[in-house]
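User: structure tokens for this one?
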Amino acid sequence: MLDHLGIQARDIPASLAFYDAVLAPLGARRMLEYGDVVGYGVERPDFWLSPTTVSGPAHEAHIAFTAADRAAVRAFHDAAVAAGAEVLHAPKVWPEYHPTYFGAFVRDPDGNNVEAVCHRPE
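Assistant:
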């Protein structure tokens, strides 16, 4: 349903370091850079970061990235922890969503709820 998603960050270098680390285990990388605007993706840029243009507190967003398997979810979690992210939920099965929903949730530098999820069984 979504073609691409863009979010704004208060500290672009901190956010780039975070997303470089946590998206690598999911197979994504920086693909395009236009000044402070950066597009990440696997085959094409579909997740974008840009500097915030407004003052005041940011509104939390929830972003879920697809992981190829449960090992990638665990690697995403480990990379986030190494990057100093707050862990909201360690990797686990969430049967309330469906029997094979395996996800991990962390906060990015701007307070967004960032998830890696695999829908396949172990």
